[in-house]
Design a protein that fits this description.
The structure holds two protein chains of two kinds. By secondary structure, chain A is of the alpha/beta class. Helix content of chain A is 31%, strand content 29%. In chain A, helix 2 runs antiparallel to helix 3 and helix 5 packs parallel to helix 6. Chain A is globular and about 55 Å long. The two termini of chain A are 34 Å apart. The N terminus of chain A is likely disordered. By secondary structure, chain B is mostly helical. In chain B, 60% of the residues lie in helices and 4% in strands. Chain B is built from 19 helices and three strands. Chain B starts with a strand and ends with a helix. Classes of the chains: A alpha/beta, B mainly alpha. Chains A and B meet through helix 1, strand 8, helix 4 and helix 5 of A and helix 11, helix 17 and helix 18 of B.
């Protein structure tokens, strides 16, 4: 299963490379596999032990044949996208560092982690690395100042997370007040529709913010945590990691659907009483005005 | 720090003002009795002593005055200006509030003395420079930082002087609280309004408005900019630079950060932030930029910004023409960067992807340390499903030097400064113009 997944990932990469050369991405049943990251819960708790036959997946309403990979088999690419603008200082900064370290404690040897900090500038404090000591040092060294480019930074985080065959978990910590991004929320949400990364958002302060990060989490099948204070931030980060590890990775080769364009996904579990969270769909091929109006 | 204006109903404004401590008074709402003539003499001495462009003792002294003092000063300044002799212009004599007949006589004598010593316009312009310097180089005046409560008392009489305005302070997109707007800009404008024969014919007045506009945009003092730019336009309705500044202000108002702030900020009672929608502000910006270009067709930055606001309103073909024209007529690297970046956006919207990519690449080549152009390349590559190119562009952003090494410069970060990008030059030129003899 793992070898098949590895091949599928490489083949998907080849597909993208072909697209780069020809600018005409194609969708052939032999080489193009779609990965869908799914969280199944019962009364808020992840449900273990499900098999491929427990799921029903529809791509643009067409039932698909699903393969399943348990998440433990796939190494993680964890990308921290942390707000280090002027508003993150004092106790909030300490809590953030502590939370980052707590999550690092939960990683295993195959996992890789990166830290992108942002204020006005986006900075890679550390690229994807299995070297946790280096990551801990990067967390300590990052210093807050200036404005906020959270929209730009989350975009960079998503792409960095996908740069490797591991499963991309992007954890964004920000109060979400963007002051200086070049990219727009629409562009980044559109990019999210083409991304395999799952974005979890942890947002301190008032929940009456713009919906961008919430929409981003939703578009990628992730979750949003709105915190009144950062005193429990470490437990939230650990919970994010634990929940992510318990997600299922469904793969399938699309059949019976148009190749390019927006593909709406409908993932269900046959057993009753369970909730399913997955990305609402994905964009195959170039984004067009029609495909961006969903 | 950014300041936005907050609109209040008159009753609420009165109540708010009364809640504000005036210059540190412990008794809220008490208007101190000021010895107005003496205070005016002090002010006049400060104006004449002040070294433009500095925060000297004269500026510090006047800068420390309370809001009540400045309110009173404004009335005395008006009365004084009306007493200054001007050819072909009869004096208008009237007593400011609290002034006795003897005070009026003394004020008249002061006006005569000032006029014969250095001329009326010299002192008026010096006054404008003094009050501008107090804001630009010093701390704000005696405004207060008050959060309204529902139980405030309403209905007290409005203090004399300029209309009360309330500003909302914003730091990194977060509202920090409201405060009464300062009065130094009002006083400066009041002084220049009395320049003869008319302010609109005075080059230094124009230059003052442009230089202070640059400061207001650079510092994010958008609340003060609204009134300031409006007055500049009333005096210089067809000046391309003044029109451009107004266009920049509305373009900033249309931006996502400002619109998000307006939409998400909760204000008490009847308060609201009087900024229109993004669409309304883009239309206004377009109008101002077009008028600026009507007066100066070679105004490259006005044309670039016109292209951008037209593009943002969905008229991509029209935007394309403006941007292509502007890029071909400038060698200014900042303007070329903006033009190339915006051109890339327009070409992308027109599905001319190879050309869009080339435009973004040109921008990236102009400022290799700028993240905005590389992010534009990344999102474009992603849009056309070129994942490797998208990742490469993002990795170039992530490989940029750490900001702590001071090597990051992104022209996009200075876009909303408008003319404020050249603030120091503008202020230096203003002082030189005043000091080397254009004061009349």
């Amino acid at each position: 299963m793992r070898r098949r997944l590895l091949i599928a990932s490489l083949l998907l990469w080849c597909s993208a490379t072909t697209a780069a050369g020809l600018q005409t991405p194609t969708f052939t049943s032999r080489v193009d596999v779609v990965r869908v990251d799914v969280l199944v819960t019962e009364r808020g708790r992840p449900v273990p032990g499900l098999a491929a036959e427990d799921f029903e997946l529809r791509d643009n309403r067409v039932l698909q044949q699903v393969d399943l990979v348990s998440f433990e088999q796939v190494p993680l690419n964890v990308v921290f996208v942390f707000d280090f603008s002027a508003s993150v200082s004092g106790q909030r900064l300490k809590d953030l560092r502590r939370a980052g370290n707590a999550l690092l404690d939960g990683l295993d040897a195959r996992d890789r982690v990166a830290l992108i900090s942002f204020n006005q500038a986006i900075t890679q404090e550390s690229g994807l690395t299995p070297d946790l000591a280096r990551m801990r040092a990067a967390l300590d060294d990052a210093a807050p100042s200036g404005g906020s480019s959270v929209i730009d930074a989350t975009f960079a985080g998503m792409l960095l997370g996908e740069s490797d065959v591991g499963r991309a978990l992007v954890i964004v910590f920000s109060d979400e007040t963007d002051t200086s991004s070049w990219l727009t929320t629409e562009l980044v949400l559109s990019a999210a529709s083409q991304s395999d990364a799952v974005v979890y958002v942890v947002s301190p302060g008032s929940p009456r913010r713009s919906s961008f990060l919430r929409d981003l989490a939703s578009a990628t099948g992730g979750r949003t945590f709105d915190l009144d204070s950062t005193s429990d931030l470490a437990s939230v980060f650990v919970a994010v990691l634990e929940e992510f590890r318990r997600r299922y990775l469904l793969t399938y080769t699309p059949r019976g659907v148009a190749k390019e364009g927006w593909h709406r996904l409908d993932v269900r579990v046959k057993r009753r009483g369970l909730s399913v969270k997955a990305r609402p769909g994905y964009q195959a091929g170039p984004v067009t005005p029609e495909s961006s109006d969903r | 720090m950014v300041c936005l204006s907050v609109l209040l109903t008159p009753l609420v404004a009165d109540g708010f003002e009364d809640l504000c401590a005036t210059g540190g008074d412990a008794d809220i709402g008490v208007q101190r009795q000021v010895r107005s003539l003496e205070r005016f003499r002090h002010w006049l001495a400060a104006v004449r002593a002040h070294q433009p462009g500095t925060l000297d003792s004269a500026a510090l002294a006047v800068g420390s005055w309370s809001r009540a003092d400045l309110n009173t000063l404004s009335r005395w300044l008006e009365a004084f200006s009306d007493l200054l002799p001007a050819p072909g212009r009869p004096r208008r004599e009237w007593r400011p509030p609290g002034a006795s007949p003897a005070d009026l006589e003394a004020l008249r004598a002061l006006a005569d003395e000032v006029s014969s010593a250095s001329g009326r316009n010299d002192v008026l312009k010096r006054a404008a420079l003094l009050h501008a310097d107090i804001v630009i180089h010093g701390t704000e005046d005696g405004t207060s930082f008050v959060e309204l409560s529902p139980a405030q008392q309403l209905g007290r009489g409005r203090a004399a002087g300029p209309p009360a305005r309330i500003n909302l302070r914003v730091l990194d997109g977060e509202p920090q609280g409201m405060h009464m707007a300062g009065l130094h800009w009002d006083l400066a404008r009041l002084a220049l309004d009395a320049v003869t024969p008319v302010p609109s014919e005075d080059g230094m007045v124009r230059h003052w408005y442009r230089a202070t506009a640059a400061y207001l945009l650079h510092s994010g003092s958008l609340a003060d900019a609204v009134v300031h730019f409006q007055r500049a336009q009333e005096i210089f309705p067809d000046d391309p630079g003044v029109l451009f500044d107004n266009g920049c202000l509305h373009e900033t108002f249309s931006s996502p950060p400002v619109q998000r702030l307006v939409q998400t900020t909760v204000l008490p009672g009847n308060l609201k932030i009087p900024i229109g929608t993004a669409g309304m502000n883009l239309q206004r910006a377009e109008t101002y930029f077009r008028r600026a270009l009507a007066g100066d067709p070679d105004f490259v930055e006005a044309r670039i910004r016109l292209g951008r606001v037209v593009h943002l309103q969905g008229r991509h073909v029209e935007a394309l023409g403006e941007l292509q024209k502007s890029i071909g007529t400038t060698e200014d690297r900042y303007l070329l960067y903006y033009g190339s970046l915006f051109l890339g956006d327009v070409l992308q919207a027109l599905d001319r992807h190879a050309a869009a990519r080339d435009a973004y690449r040109r921008a990236a080549a102009l400022y290799p340390g700028a993240q905005s152009a590389r992010l534009a390349l990344a999102q474009h590559a992603r849009r056309v499903s070129d994942r490797p190119a998208a990742l490469e562009a993002v990795q170039q952003v992530l490989a940029l030097p750490h900001p702590s090494r001071g090597e990051r410069e992104d022209p996009w970060w200075a876009y909303e400064h408008g003319a404020g990008r050249n603030l120091e030059d503008s202020l230096t030129a203003l002082r030189k113009q005043f000091l080397h003899g254009s004061a009349k």
